[in-house]
Specification:
This protein is an all-alpha fold and 492 residues long. The chain contains 22 helices and 2 strands. The chain has a two-stranded antiparallel ribbon.
């Protein structure tokens, strides 16, 4: 097998190696310069392979499942991997000036790099794994890195936020692991494809599925399991906040989608899909209303994440159906996946921009953005483009995603979900204009100088979220490669 054929393996090995070297080597700039181009090249190789040849699968050591470990990637996994690579690349480049100076080394500056690369490796492992236990291990690595990043600065508020996150994460891990144990006891395998052929809606499988869903919902911060997210995302350093908001919830959501659309689509009855839809709708409305009330910039953006995550879970009622193929299911599934990608790009950009504003102004009160269009126009433009995506306005990727979900809602006669999506867009406009409007005020407040290059890096993420909408035909087509059958036939 060629080196490029082993791209999925190296996409995990390279950031793990960088994480280890970051502990022992005093050269974070060298690590970033070495690891980032390699990760970009490996990601491009994987995406091109999936585009050209369809879904790929690699049996580690030559042992097929269930005896061995398999790494697999279709259009969805490759899309999430590519998004992770793009977002992490920009984040580590923005973080270099703040955490890359080894003169007068601090705990924060030393610990950030191994944690960031460990998170990168764990995210890739989640997206590539096809076994529920391997996914559990990867998610636990991700949780450990996230927990440490939240508490990185060691302040009282961040320690409290980390403890709150730890409690929710522990609940999620225990629930998920117990569900995995029940499925293994019932069927003797944890491979997703083999489980799909084995599970028949028996009581052990249903209880296991319920536990796995509850555990992953807690890790995704779905309402009412969201209480850990705002203080954790607001309290962490801005580059860490960008990772936590843009990427970490997507990992557990990805597993949840894979589990229900691949393993147990026949067990997702009307009560289940409607319940998940209600929780998603509650997240949209509650998170938006709380965002409107915030007086701190990063907390406002964090509550926006609670709301935007809610849209993802509307895929369950919108893709629900009976045994006949539903013409709207594929649109709902694709729209939700595009929403996850667009949100990752826009929210990564917004948190990084917020970090630059805090660095320039010295605080994160909303007054910090007053006059931003005059003093830091590139950063103000980043906020504007990110807001277009989060509000779901054309021509952004957020618009295409929500348009697909809206058309699915209308086509299936589920008007209530369409109203929730439209209301969420209006509420997003309300809280985002609280940030955008003051940027045009005249302000004579002094700000620290932030270089144009550092401001331009988050702008590339925001611009990419717009390009996702302008060039949506290709991402739409790519997501269909290896699409689960239930994405077309509907959850039953």
């Amino acid at each position: 097998m060629t080196t490029l054929g082993l791209a999925p393996v190296f996409l995990i090995i390279v950031p793990l190696t960088a994480a280890f070297l970051a502990v022992v080597a005093p050269w974070p700039r060298v690590l970033v310069i070495g690891a980032v181009p390699l990760m970009l090249a490996l990601t491009v190789a994987l995406v091109m392979s999936v585009w050209r040849d369809g879904p790929i699968s690699i049996a580690i050591g030559g042992w097929q499942a269930p005896l061995g470990i398999e790494l697999a990637a279709g259009g969805l996994a490759a899309s999430f991997l590519a998004t992770t690579t793009v977002v992490m690349t920009i984040i580590v480049l923005v973080a270099l000036p703040a955490f890359g100076n080894r003169h007068g080394e601090t705990r924060t500056g030393w610990a950030f790099w191994p944690l960031a690369f460990m998170m990168w490796a764990a995210l890739n492992a989640v997206f590539l794994s096809g076994d529920l236990f391997n996914i559990y291990v990867a998610i636990e690595f991700l949780t450990l890195a996230t927990l440490a990043l939240v508490a990185l600065e060691g302040k009282a508020g961040t320690i409290e936020a980390a403890m709150r996150y730890a409690i929710f994460a522990l609940f999620g891990s225990l629930a998920y692991l117990l569900g995995v144990v029940l499925l293994y006891a019932a069927h003797g395998t944890l491979d997703l494809d083999l489980l799909a052929a084995a599970t028949k809606g028996d009581s052990a499988s249903l209880v296991g599925a319920a536990l796995i869903t509850a555990g992953l919902a807690a890790k995704t911060a779905l309402f009412p399991f969201h209480a850990w997210l705002p203080p954790a995302h607001a309290g962490a350093p801005a580059p860490a906040s960008a990772m936590l908001s843009a990427l970490v919830p997507k990992a557990s959501f990805f597993v949840l989608v894979q589990f229900w659309f691949v393993v147990m689509p026949e067990a997702a009855g009307p009560l289940f899909v409607q319940l998940i839809g209600v929780l998603g709708a509650a997240a949209i409305l509650y998170g938006s209303l709380l965002a409107i009330r915030q007086t701190r910039l990063k907390r406002l953006i964090a509550y926006s994440t609670v709301a935007q995550i809610g849209y993802l879970f509307l895929v369950f009622p919108l893709a629900g159906g009976d045994s006949a193929a539903q013409p709207w299911s594929a649109g709902a599934w694709t729209g939700a996946m595009l929403q996850a990608i667009a949100h990752a790009l826009a929210k990564g950009a917004m948190f990084l921009a917020a970090g630059l504003v805090v660095e320039a102004a010295g605080h994160d009160r909303l007054s910090a953005v007053h006059g931003l269009a005059r003093t830091m126009p590139i950063t103000a433009f980043t906020f504007a483009l990110s807001s277009v995506t989060l509000m779901g306005l054309p021509p952004s990727g957020g618009f295409v995603a929500k348009y697909l979900m809206l058309t699915s809602a209308f086509a299936s006669g589920q008007i209530v979900w369409a109203l929730v999506i439209l209301t969420g867009g209006l509420l997003a406009a309300a809280y985002l204009f609280r940030v955008l409007a003051p940027t045009f005020l005249r302000s004579a407040k002094a700000r620290a100088d932030i270089g144009a290059v550092r401001q331009a890096l988050p702008l590339t993420l925001a611009a990419t979220s717009i390009l996702l909408g302008l060039l949506s035909a290709q991402p739409f087509e790519f997501l269909q490669i290896g699409r689960p059958q239930a994405a077309t036939g509907g959850l039953q």
